[in-house]
Amino acid sequence: MPVLRVIDRDGVEHEVQATSGQKVMEVLRELDYGVAAICGGMCSCATCHVYVDPDWIDKLPAPMSDERELLSELVHHQDNSRLSCQIEFTDALDGLRVTIAPDE
Asked: What is the span of the domain harbouring residue 30?
């Protein structure tokens, strides 16, 4: 089964099982150290904000305008910021490494 590598807010890295076709947010919100994902994946709250490891950023589809706009308003925005609700996990992303961003 494909693996998602997650660095929690304490800096601890975890390997978790992920299913192809799930949004990364769906995996992360089930973890005790994961994301809140308050809007449930509607790209409207940014409580699923993550930083994508630089080695993986070019392997993801570019963010759509609504995601870019929401991310640009965040205090903790970085160049590798993404909303995990907008990233569909696929077998090609086996080993994807993300860091959960600080709460806003």
From this structure: 3-100
